[in-house]
Design a protein that fits this description.
The chain is of the alpha/beta class and about 575 residues long. The protein contains 16 helices and 22 strands. The protein folds into four domains: about 10-110 and about 180-385 and about 430-475, Alpha-Beta Barrel (TIM Barrel); about 115-175, Oligo-1,6-glucosidase, Domain 2 (Oligo-1,6-glucosidase, domain 2), CATH 3.90.400; about 385-420, no CATH class; about 485-570, Sandwich (Immunoglobulin-like). Helix 7 (about 265-275) links the parallel strand 12 and strand 13 (about 285). It is globular.
């Protein structure tokens, strides 16, 4: 049965999405790992924020080598997370609250435990062989080319039984599917249809822009950094064709909201992926703003983040997507990134102000905002004591690889502690009870020791908390049209401390000014904007993160991590 609910076709443009990493959200069994029922139990908490869409990360049957992104069965729930009945109940409980479920779809690759791959590996003649990408060894017997895995090492795994290599762009147990094969594309359409019939309202498509590879599989000559082969499979030759087919067969008939996760993509491609005229996705994730602390694009090296580059990237994507008719998925945090609170601001002395600053800065932009669990209560990166505390396969691999490259164990451990995906995967901190109210058992990964004072209960009860700051911003997006349709104009002209911008439509102008430093900052609005600021004080302060209520004026002084949003009439 197709979703025929009566709502505007672009209803998701004024919505906010809440991302749930189920393993770390809420455990109802005492096993130490979160489950679907735990999410259902906390729906009123999420609804209290004003959230419309819940994005649930993979809960399919999986060996869990990459926390569920290695799918062994696309049609069944992993017992670690519960049952299909639990999933169906979740869908129903969301609908009762007028909320929607978006689920993760991982179809660039499957687990090597998937029946398709087991069949494919059994012989070169097996009909499932062509579901994956197999190549003969190079002349020296080594991998077919020099492409590198995103998790380190060669992107090719040798199969002794059939004397060929298969492609694995991620973990060695995640074999890339062959989208050139029409049967693979039909399998994807079938599984999407299965879940749409279950009543989900949308899909988040994992690394979906990598599904089309250069059919020649050439070596990377290193002329375009980082020289790991990605230029031959990122936004590949047939990717738009493949996505249009999914849209035609599933997304459009079921009125679904969709977001494509785009790895190492370009603005031009994201305009195409998300412009409604192209009939592909509703919106796209891009990650360029989260690489501003990567020296020469290298994730596993450290440097302070480049504030000007951060502002420029956000601005370029705001302006570019607006001009091209695309739509951004806005986010600071997700399950693959360290916490933005620790990365870009001060997560200790100014934790409260910093968390609100990040929220205000992001939620004033054009796009659909995503809130990652714990962000709304100001969860920072944890303090890591020992490498044994990490659970992430990428982090463990890199700890060894960094030492092979000459780092000391202490240096390698420090880099991993800053960059690890586990920073965002610690359990949600619900209250000050044992194990932060996450589980009655032993948690699968450690709990942040600051849970007695950083937790959801404290935040919900305090009207001035980070949680209620998010709630107000989410409500404004539904009520204030300029947040959806306003043209983006950057105002800060390269200020070393301040990020300032306006959103302008025919009737309203929204202004956001944020001080990303722990020193007081003076900000002079550009002269061509000063004349738009009303002298009678009629610009309304919608939200701020300090006790004082500053009036919008041509010259402002902002306290450390001060961040404010004003609304006024547009003057011409």
């Amino acid at each position: 049965m197709k979703n025929e609910e009566k709502r505007a076709p672009d209803w998701w443009r004024t919505s906010t999405v809440y991302q749930v990493y189920p393993k770390s959200f809420k455990d109802t069994t005492g096993r130490g790992s979160g489950d679907i029922r735990g999410l259902t139990e906390k729906l009123d908490y999420i609804k209290g924020l004003g959230i419309d869409i819940v994005w649930l990360q993979p809960v399919y049957v999986s060996p869990q080598n990459d926390n569920g992104y290695d799918v062994a069965d696309y049609y069944n729930i992993d017992p670690a997370y519960g049952t299909m009945e639990d999933f169906e109940q979740l869908v129903q409980e969301l609908k009762k609250r007028n909320m929607h479920l978006m689920i993760d779809i991982v179809v660039n690759h499957s687990s090597t435990e998937h029946p398709w791959f087991k069949e494919a590996k059994s012989s070169r003649d097996n009909p499932y062989r062509d579901y994956y990408i197999w190549k003969d060894p190079a002349e020296d017997g080594g991998p077919p080319n020099n492409w590198q895995s995103k998790f380190g090492g060669s992107a090719w795994q040798y199969d002794e039984g059939t004397k060929q290599y298969y492609l694995t762009l991620y973990d060695k147990t995640q074999a890339d599917l062959n989208w050139e094969n029409e049967k693979v594309r039909q399998e994807v359409i079938d599984l999407l249809t299965f879940w749409a019939d279950k009543g989900v309202s949308g899909f988040r498509m994992d690394v979906i822009n990598l599904i089309s590879k250069d059919p020649a599989f050439p070596n990377d000559d290193g002329s375009v950094p980082p020289g790991d082969g990605r230029k031959f499979y990122t936004d590949g030759p047939r990717v738009h064709e493949y996505i249009k087919e999914l849209n035609e067969k599933v997304f459009r008939p079921y009125h679904l909201v969709t977001v494509g996760e785009m790895s190492s993509t370009t603005l031009e491609h994201c305009i195409r992926y998300s412009n409604p005229k192209e009939n592909e996705f509703s919106m796209t994730f891009s990650f360029h703003h989260l690489k501003v602390d990567y020296p020469n694009g290298q994730k596993w090296e450290l440097k302070p983040y480049d504030f000007e580059e951060l502002k420029q990237v956000l601005s370029d994507w705001q302006v570019g997507m607006q001009q091209g008719g695309g739509w951004n998925a806005l986010f600071w945090n997700n399950h693959d990134q360290p916490r933005a609170l620790s990365r870009f601001t001060n997560d200790s002395e100014y934790r409260n102000e910093s968390a609100k600053l990040l929220a205000t800065t992001l939620h004033g932009l054009q796009g659909t905002p995503y809130v990652y669990q714990g962000e709304e209560i100001g969860m920072p990166d944890p303090k890591w004591n020992d490498i044994s505390e990490f659970r992430d396969v990428e982090s463990r691999n890199m700890y060894n690889i960094l030492q092979q490259k000459g780092k000391t164990p202490e240096e390698a451990a420090h880099i991993v502690s800053v960059r690890s995906r586990d920073n965002s995967r610690l359990p949600m901190m619900w209250d000050d009870s044992d194990q932060a109210g996450f589980t009655t058992g032993t948690p699968w990964i450690k709990i942040d020791e600051r849970y007695p004072f950083i937790n959801a209960k404290v935040q919900v009860e305090d009207p001035d908390s980070i949680y209620h700051h998010y709630r107000k911003l989410i409500e404004y997006r539904k009520k204030i049209p300029v947040l959806t349709d306003g043209k983006y104009v950057r105002l800060d002209e390269g200020h070393k401390q301040i990020y300032a911008y306006a959103r302008i439509n025919a009737s309203e102008t929204l202004v956001v000014v944020s001080n990303f430093s722990q020193e007081e900052a003076r900000f002079d609005f550009p002269k061509n904007f000063t004349e738009k600021i009303p002298e009678d004080g009629s610009a309304k302060l919608l939200i701020g993160n300090t006790e004082d209520q500053p009036e919008l004026s041509p010259i402002m002084k902002l306290p450390p991590y001060g961040s404010y949003m004003w609304l006024m009439k547009t003057t011409h």
